[in-house]
Amino acid sequence: MSSTTTVTKPPKARPTASTVDILNNDTARIYTHIHPILVLSLYVFRFKPIVADPVPTLLNTLILLGILQVAYVSVCLPATGTASTPSVVKPGARKKPGPSKLESNVQGRIIPAFLSLLLSTMVGTPLIGIMLILFGAPLTTHFPHTFLCAAHISLLASIPLIYVHGVDGERWREIVALLLPIDEVFGAALGTFMGAWLGAVPIPLDWDREWQKWPVTIVTGAYIGFAVGKLAGGLLFKGRKISFN
Amino acid sequence: MGGRASSILLAIANLLIPAAVLIFATGFFPYKPFLPGLAKFQELEYGDPPEAPFDKVIFMVVDALRSDFVYSRDSGFKFTQSLISSGAAVPFTAHATSPTITMPRVKAITTGSIPSFLDVILNFAESDTTSTLAHQDTWLAQLKAKENGKLIMYGDDTWLKLFPDTFSRADGTSSFFVSDFTEVDNNVTRHVPEELLASDWNAMIMHYLGLDHIGHKAGPHSSNMLPKQIEMDGIVKDIYDAIENEAHLESTLFVLCGDHGMNDGGNHGGSAPGETSPALVFMSPKLRTITNGTECPTTPTRDFDYYTKIEQSDIAPTLAGLLGFPVPLNNLGVFIPEFLSFWSSGADQVQLLLRNAMQIQTIVKATFPNSDFSRSSQRSSHCESPLSSGDELACKWRTALEILEIAGQDLDPKVCLPPLVEFCKSAQDTMSSTASNYDLSRLALGSAVSFVSVILSLAALRPQVSQITSTGVFFALILVLYGLMMFASSYVEEEQHFWYWTASAWFFYLFLFESRKAWFGNFALHPALMLLALLRVTRRWNQTGQKHAGAPDIVHSAFLNTPLVLWTLIGATYLDITFRLARHIAQSLSESKDNEAENGVPDIARIGGALTVLPLGAMAFLFKLSFTAKDAPELVAGMTGTILGWVEGLSLVGIARLVFWGIGTSMVWLVVSHWRRKRGRKGEQGVESTQEDLDLAIGLFDLLSLFLVTQTRAQNIPLYLIFRAQLFFLTHLNLPPIQITISSLLLSHTSFFALGNSNAISSIDLSNAYNGVAGYNVLAVGLLVFMGNWAGPIYWASVGTLLLGLYEEELSKEKSAKQDPIKIKPWVAAERAQLKMQADADLKTPQDPSSIFTLLTGLSESEQVPSYFFSHIAWLTLFTSFSLLAVMAACTALRTHLFIWTVFSPKYLYAMAWGVAFHLGISIGWGSVMWWASPY
After folding, report:
1. Are the CB atoms for A158 and A165 separated by under 8 Å?
2. Cβ contact B512–A139 (<8 Å)
3. Which of B49, B31, B61 minimizes the C-alpha distance to B327?
4. A:127-146 residues touching chain B, CB 8 A cutoff
5. How far is B235 from chain A, CA to nearest CA, in Å?
6. DSSP code of residue B302
7. What pLDDT, on the 0 to 100 scale, is given for residue B794?
């Protein structure tokens, strides 16, 4: 995978998005690795109840996942407003203390994090729900299942993306067209979607297990994909661009 | 590598496909030779064969009569049940081996042998001479050979085809329309009273189809099921009463049986317990002498196992014993021991079984020539597993002989019978287990040949394969995953999920691919996403596969309730095709010079086009309507009686022929007029003939669609509207050739399953097999069956070729746009040139510097540059030979798998059809015609 040759008309008139770096402090550097472990542990811990009774369990797991994701983005990631300028600046140079630490944390991190959560739930979930249905999710039955599955995928993939990239239309076009360079946020999102897609594989097998029921495998795939994608995006492929050639 | 070398490689790769298929098939479905001639009673030291209690037989087959239909508490067979309770009837469950379809089952019942899987194919090619039993030993032949032997037959004409010139009086009924529940059976029943009065026959066979039709149409729990059972029970009562009262029927054995059962969906063909458990009842007042009756109705011990479970092949030797004729030569059945008590003398009982065992031993000896069956050799103390199956049987046979020898003339059944039964039963088991029959060297050779084909097609594609692109990776993933999937029975059964899953990803990939080039304004309406949405509709059209068979789908939950919506959509489909055809005809009618102007078709030609095509379209629609009124009346419910009454009076064969004839003539007309115009234009303008178009190819394609729609069941016809919309969005995507190939491959497979097909034999749709065919014409019926079941794939294979032609046309327009730059916006041209370069980078070895020049100038040198169609075929050949290799490897590796006959063998049959009929016949054969019709 070398740099892109496919792009006939590279987006011009704006700086090409660069990779997202983790905030330059020890807490962020440590927590970014603890976070996927926490997310996976949460899922492993809730797996049996999810299989047994998907709808309520997926719903309350969703709340916990939301909290974890909000914590992750506010601890580890540069928020959208801050990200666009410091992403040009080298990570080491970002040591400008704001007016008050608490105030800046609330304004600069917590509020964007909750806004990301809100957008991810209100906008991301329906869009992903529609995609799930287009990819074959049941339409006339299992509506809450599909909806909750979409919500899980959305919270996993889109909270960090919204938090670091904001709601800029042009940027989101690049995200959808996979033109962004890979980093742990983008990698996690890609991993989540790939995992959810691969999660459909065991459904047709004739093992007749409870966990083969909709949408357990999809959600499982999404969680695993999130962790794998985040790790691979942050370490292995960081800075690379996806090439279709 | 030059174009010519690649062509030769590809040609060989394709020639190897049918070779591989044939070699593998002969090893996998070995043709079992049968012993010709009629069996004769052998001279035995124990004297003449024992006297038989019966001299006549009435054999009543009720198609798909599952055991519980007779024996359960909910059964309508109350009279039959009373006979069982009173002892005048002996009930069994007769295990039918897979394939559970009528012809192999009738073979098993009459010859006592276990038909090979090959009979499934022959079942569809019914008049094949190898499948008749005219020269085989059956209980029918034996009864006919008797003094005054005279056979009569009423019912399913399978019997007439299997036994030509056997019956003195016969009236065959064919299961032409599955919706016919009453007429088929009345045609049998009306002969019964007079035949019961006649005394000239010694065997009467009846085969009722109505119950099977009800199963196919509405399943075993249909409201029609109980009335039909009661009707059948009434016939049983009439016959039994006649046997009790008529003197000439005094010694008549009355057998009621099913040829196979049905599953919960009402279908059969596989080996589910319901399908393999038909009922079998022997009835006669004489049976009261040997039995006191059995409790009936009752509950099964397991699934559908009521009473004693026997093999279906046991019917033949049992009839032989009870009616006093030698056991048929190829029989592998065992005389049912319950009936031995008809003979009071123990010697007679032993003799009966000994003759049965001797006959089986002849076959066993022929199968295992290396095992020692002679009486003189040493008897081993135990005949258990360490021995080969042949030696084990030989050992059991020697044991039985030794015991008989010791017994001398004093045959005690308690001592002599068990070893004989033991031998017969193990021989039956061994001979019916197919594992011993594979010809492994042929299996390996067949797989090797398809492997060579894979390598050759890869070699033909070498310049393209050597470049790694994401599209290439996608294709490779399809290959690898599909190959792996063939080894898992559930994925074979649920193959549609693989294609739906891959095709969804593919359309999303196309969306990403296009989005990276330029952002589509209204991205929610992006052509690729519309393709995805339409695919989502088609995949719910028909629920297919095994796991969720019978789950709600669009056809069953929407159209069955609202036939009007269905027919509106069908009408729209026909109108769409008719209008398109009218345009083609109009164009062909107009003079060549008018064609140069934009929309220069004169009104008179348009009217002419419409007038010629409208009758064809109307006739095709009428055919569908009248056919459906007979085949699936539930789909025309709610239509006014006058229309239906008028429609039902039409001759289906006649209209179908007219439609086919109209399509054929139109094709010829289009070709001829196209050729004339081309020639005229050349004469007029000399060199300038570049402005050609795809008219002819599109015209042929639209005529083909009309044919395919005719070969499709009514409820699936609206799918063609969706296909048309998908085609529309595909043309908007402007795909490069390799992506066209992949799209056509994926849509071929998704449409195959969307039309309701699966990898099970039972899902083969025969309803359109006899359109326009009056008699038996294997070739025509086979072709129509293929066209009907592969209609979707044929459609999409043609689209693939069409899109390649369109792609070329775009390129040539670009070329002319260079001379006339106003026509196309410069950036469009630039992008197309870019695309073209990328596409052609795939096509050529990169070190060939002249190639890009060739492309830019647009001068194609066919010697060096393989055409798009060539690469298209090469990719498809790679897929076909690879999938064949995977199926062959799976069938070889899993030949002892439990599901080999139910899942993997049917898959092999489907792979044969995909490889030979679809790939060679349609993708290459018909594709070449379409490509030739494109101007480039």
Report:
1. no
2. no
3. B49
4. 133-136, 139-140
5. 43
6. B
7. 97
Q: Are B255 and B248 in contact (CB under 8 A)?
A: no
pLDDT in tens, B276-313: 999 999 999 999 988 888 898 898 888 899 999 999 99
| CB atoms B533 and A8 under 8 Å | no
d(CA B712, CA B720) in angstroms, rounded, equals: 10
A134 vs B491, B532, B546: nearest CB = B532
Cβ distance B518 to A244 less than 8 Å, yes or no, reads no
Closest chain A C-alpha to B731 CA, distance in angstroms:
21
Percent of chain B with pLDDT over 90: 45
Look-up of token digits 């009335």: B227
Residue ranges, chain A, pLDDT below 50: 1-13, 83-98
Shortest CA distance from A207: residue in chain B: B490
Chain centroid offset of residue B588 CA: 40
Looking at the DSSP assignment, which residues form a beta bridge with residue B256? Answer: B60, B281
- B38 is written with which tokens? 């009629």
Taking contacts as CB-CB distances below 8 angstroms, the residues of chain A near B540 are 139
DSSP conformation letters of B94-156: EEPPSS-SHHHHHHHHHH-S---THHHHHHHSTT-GGG--TTS--HHHHHHHSTT--EEEEEE
Q: What is the pLDDT of residues B848-857, one digit of tens each?
A: 433 333 333 3
Mean pLDDT, chain B, rounded, equals: 84
In single-letter form, the type of residue at position A108 comes to G
Contact, B27 vs B438, CB < 8 A? yes
State the pLDDT at residue B878.
96
The whole-number pLDDT of residue B264 equals 81
Q: Do the chains contact at B516 and A177, CB–CB below 8 Å?
A: yes
What residues of A are in contact with residue B736 (Cβ under 8 Å)?
A: none
Of the pLDDT bands very low, low, confident and very high (cuts 50, 70, 90), residue B496 is very high
**What φ, ψ does residue B863 adopt, rounded to 5°?**
-65, -40
Contact A198, A128 (CB under 8 A): no
Residue A2 contacts B, CB cutoff 8 Å:
no
Residue with tokens 């050729």: B675
In this complex, is the C-beta atom of A243 within 8 Å of any C-beta atom belonging to chain B?
A: yes
Nearest to B621 by CA among B700, B722, B720, B757: B720
Give dist(CA B442, CA B24) in Å, integer: 6
pLDDT score, position B755: 94
Matching residue, tokens 């999130």 = A226
Q: Do B488 and A135 touch (CB under 8 A)?
A: no
Q: Are A208 and A241 in contact (CB under 8 A)?
A: no
Residues forming a β-bridge with B425: none
> What residue ranges do the domains of chain A occupy?
26-87+102-236
- Cβ–Cβ < 8 Å for A179, A11: yes
What are the chain B neighbours of A243 within 8 Å (beta carbons)? 470
Paired with B281 in beta bridges are B91, B256
Could you tell me which chain B residue has the CA closest to the CA of A136? B536
What average pLDDT score do residues B49-60 get?
Answer: 91
From CA B630, how far away is CA B636, in angstroms rounded? 9
Q: Is the pLDDT of residue B404 over 90?
A: no
CA distance A168 to chain B (A): 15
Residues of A in contact with B471 (CB under 8 A): 244
Percentage of residues in chain B having pLDDT higher than 70: 86
CB B514 within 8 A of CB B729: no
DSSP letter string over B507-519?
Answer: HHHHHHHHHHHS-
Q: Which residues make Cβ contacts (< 8 Å) with residue A234, sequence separation at least 6?
A: A22, A32, A183, A184, A187
Query: Which residues in chain A have Cβ-Cβ distances shorter than 8 Å to B547?
Result: 204, 206
**Of A220, A235, A240, nearest in space to A58 by CA:** A220
B384: number of Cβ within 10 Å:
9
Whether the link from the prior residue into B99 is cis, omega within 30° of 0, is yes
**Token pair belonging to B639:** 């239509």
